[in-house]
Amino acid sequence: MGTAAIIVAAGRGTRAGGPLPKQWQELSGAPVVLHTLRAFARHPGIDQLILVLHPDDIAAGRAPSDPPCTIVPGGAERRDSVLAGLEACAPGTQKVLIHDAARPGVSAAIISAVLAALDETPAAAPALPVTDALWRGEKGRVTGTQDRTGLYRAQTPQGFAYAAILAAHRAHPGPAADDVEVARAAGLEVAIVPGHEDNLKITHPDDFTRAERILGAQMDISQIDIRLGNGYDVHRFCEGDHVTLCGIDVPHERALDGHSDADVGMHAVTDALYGALAQGDIGRHFPPSDPQWKGAASEIFLAHAANLAREMGFTIGNVDCTLVCERPKIGPHADAMQARMAEILGIDPTRVSIKATTSERLGFTGREEGIAALATATLVKS
Ligand SMILES: Nc1ccn([C@@H]2O[C@H](COP(=O)(O)OP(=O)(O)OP(=O)(O)O)[C@@H](O)[C@H]2O)c(=O)n1
Ligand SMILES: C[C@](O)(CO)[C@H](O)COP(=O)(O)O
Question: Which ipTM did the prediction report?
Answer without folding.
Answer: 0.95
